[in-house]
């Protein structure tokens, strides 16, 4: 699979991941990060069963299973930090920062796998990252250093960015051994198990309020759409393209925040969206 499939899967991953992240804000703030991760995991594992039947591989080598378990265990950390971040800050601010991880994933694809990445794609990456930063950061906050306080959510978002940059690159290894669907199932099951363990250790409730049940279902549905598309995208010859397109999902999150919560976006944020889209186009078509 080549660049056209990379673009298709990248765009689907962008939409699914953006909506899943945006819809997670209310559950995280009402029931906490671990409970939200737990119920997100329940939804995603159950929803994957039909996909697993359709795409179950002929063989499941232990190396691939081990890779998927390891990636799932490590992958719990950045997604936990992401949910901690959105429990404090605005989705339209947190999501762009955490998703800048695509720059790390793209560079790993270039330097580790030798993926071609010409001048125009470098330019596109820089433009997209600039757009993400412009969309996410209110530079007036530097005056009181609120960006560095944990209650802004931004330190957690930065931690999620660094973790995701590595983890989303490592996804490729189990995917090439056991396929995209089994990999996603094992990874999400590991996140589910670790979330359950933390809830148990902290003696927090597993209860899911009735008013959040439909929302968590859609968090799982869109998370599954984003995850499946991203994993299939990693099977193409243009991992960096998939990663950078997926990075632009904060546009979806910011727009959702604007229309669902009525939070106004500044002119610079609209400019950031435009730059992020332009960067994605440069990466995809040149």
Structural commentary:
It contains 14 helices and no strands. The protein has one domain. By secondary structure, it is an all-alpha fold. 54% of the residues are buried. It is globular and about 50 Å long.
Q: Which key phrases capture this entry?
A:
286 residues; mainly alpha
Shape: globular
Radius of gyration equals 18 Å
Describe the largest sheet. none
Order of helices and strands: HHHHHHHHHHHHHH
In short:
The chain is mostly helical.
Fold blueprint:
Blueprint: H1 3-23, H2 25-31, H3 33-55, H4 62-88, H5 91-98, H6 102-113, H7 119-136, H8 154-170, H9 172-178, H10 180-202, H11 210-233, H12 239-247, H13 250-261, H14 267-285
Helix pairs in contact: 1-11, 1-12, 1-13, 2-3, 2-4, 3-4, 3-10, 3-11, 4-8, 4-9, 4-10, 5-7, 5-8, 5-13, 6-8, 6-12, 7-14, 9-10, 10-11
């Amino acid at each position: 699979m080549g660049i056209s499939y990379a673009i298709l899967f990248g765009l689907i991953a962008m939409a699914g991941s953006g909506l899943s992240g945006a819809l997670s804000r209310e559950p995280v703030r009402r029931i906490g990060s671990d409970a939200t991760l737990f119920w997100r995991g329940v939804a995603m594992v159950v929803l994957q069963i039909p996909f697993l039947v359709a795409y179950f591989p002929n063989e499941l080598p232990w190396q691939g299973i081990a890779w998927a378990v390891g990636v799932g265990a490590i992958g719990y950390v950045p997604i936990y930090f992401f949910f901690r971040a959105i429990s404090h800050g605005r989705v339209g601010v947190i999501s762009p920062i955490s998703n800048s991880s695509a720059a790390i994933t793209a560079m790993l694809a270039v330097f580790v796998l030798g993926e071609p990445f010409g001048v125009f794609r470098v330019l596109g990456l820089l433009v997209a990252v600039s757009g993400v930063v412009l969309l996410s950061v209110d530079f007036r906050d530097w005056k009181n250093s609120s960006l560095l306080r944990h209650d802004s959510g931004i330190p957690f978002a930065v931690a999620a960015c660094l973790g995701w940059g590595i983890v989303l690159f490592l996804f490729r290894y189990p995917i090439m051994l056991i396929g995209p669907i089994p990999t996603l199932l094992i990874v999400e099951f590991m996140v589910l198990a670790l979330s359950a363990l933390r809830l148990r250790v902290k003696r927090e409730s597993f209860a899911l309020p009735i008013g959040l049940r439909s929302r968590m279902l859609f968090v799982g549905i869109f998370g599954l759409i984003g995850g499946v598309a991203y994993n299939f995208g990693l099977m193409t010859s243009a991992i960096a393209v998939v990663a950078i397109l997926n990075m632009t999902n904060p546009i979806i999150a910011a727009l959702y925040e604007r229309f669902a919560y009525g939070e106004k976006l500044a002119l610079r944020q609209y400019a950031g969206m435009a730059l992020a889209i332009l960067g994605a186009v440069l990466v995809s078509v040149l």
